[in-house]
Design a protein that fits this description.
Layout (H helix, E strand, L loop, with lengths): L13 H14 L4 H21 L3 E11 L5 H11 L4 E8 L4 E11 H12 L4 E10 L4
Antiparallel strand pairs: 1-3, 1-4, 2-3
Length: 139
């Protein structure tokens, strides 16, 4: 059960806030606060799921990044080399002049996969990422 309310301030680029406002209006939220609480709950749920996975798994890491950010492409390539032992395959797709999509197929110990996910998500220029487990146990 949630306890009390704490006010916070958040700075966002105008285009991100405009997109967020459009989405929350379409989804019928009564306020930004309600939508932000829901988004944070989803983020926490995804994180807890990722943390609860154990053992050997196979899955897909999907990453969207802004290739105009200096060094982001090199950083993602470097991380893939550092974690080559768990990366089975990858695909690079140009979404637009600004954005790229990287699809990374991983297979191995979840602890190592978590390290890769954390390092990629913390890379400046990464706009979004999602880890999807395709199979819990490798036979």
């Amino acid at each position: 059960m949630e306890e009390g309310i704490t006010r916070i301030g958040v700075s966002l680029p105008k285009n991100l806030l405009d997109d967020f406002d459009r989405i929350i209006k379409n989804r019928g939220y009564s306020s930004r606060s309600e939508a932000i609480r829901d988004a944070i709950r989803g983020y926490i749920s995804d994180y807890k799921w990722l943390e609860s996975e154990k053992g050997d798994v196979i899955g897909v890491l999907v990453v969207v990044y802004d290739h105009r950010v200096k060094g982001v492409s090199d950083a993602i390539i470097s991380l893939q080399h550092q974690f080559a032992s768990i990366i089975s395959s990858n695909m690079h797709i140009h979404l637009s002049e600004e954005q790229c999509l990287e699809i990374i197929v991983v297979k191995g110990n979840m602890e190592e996969i978590k390290k890769l996910v954390d390092r990629i998500s913390a890379t400046r220029g990464v706009l979004n990422h999602k880890m999807i487990t395709a199979q819990k146990e490798i036979q």
